[in-house]
Amino acid sequence: MNNKKHEGFLVILSGPSGSGKDTILTELEKRNFDIQVSISNTTRKARDWEINGFHYNFVSPEEFESGINSGYFLEYAKYGSNYYGTPRGPINTWIQEGKIVFLKIDVQGARRIRAEYPGVVSIFLMPPTFGALRDRLHNRESEDEADIASRLEIAANEIECSKDYDYIVVNDVVNYAVSDICAILQAEQLRAERMARTVEDIINIK
Question: Longest C-alpha distance within the chain, in Å?
């Protein structure tokens, strides 16, 4: 990117299980954007390849419910039999530092975030076809048939909610999807209200 000072902002990334959200975020971090990914807490078990504290903070149901009661979460939802939630943490600090803060959350959480942060940018990651989504879930080999059937049912309902998002990106080829999201971020950085700091600097340099 360039050295201009942009205001930070919050980005929601949603999409059905198997749409490739983790892969997209990993690739985005390689593209030189000042991105900060907020790590969600979950009560589900980690998959073999997942790292605690990197992909998710894996906690017990008791720990999660204690966090709910203490106001620890910015938003949370129950997905199947497991909780998922976004720690409040330093999100506002990151935004003030000019970072693009990504929240990987489901459609329930997205509704709550939009209510609290009216300026949030929301992106829905869409599989190329429903059949491709089914194949991806099977290929992960981390869920049994009942779990896959449940995830596909949930996915159908989530896709219906994609119309509520600012942008829809189809993840067929990962590099193309990442480029699409980069274009969205570049455009959002250049919104007049986010360029206020740059304009002020230009005016003050005489």
Answer: 67
- Contact by Cβ (8 Å): 165, 132: no
Q: Where are the domains of the chain?
A: 9-38+98-204
66-75: Cβ within 8 A, 24+ apart: 67/41, 73/41, 74/112, 74/113, 74/116, 75/105, 75/108, 75/109, 75/112, 75/113, 75/116
Evaluate whether 8 touches 97 at the Cβ level (below 8 Å): yes
Tokens 């894996």 locate to: 58
Query: DSSP string covering 55-73, please?
Result: TBEE--HHHHHHHHHHT-E
Topology of domain 9-38+98-204, CATH:
Rossmann fold (3.40.50)
Write out pLDDT tens, residues 182-191: 999 999 999 9
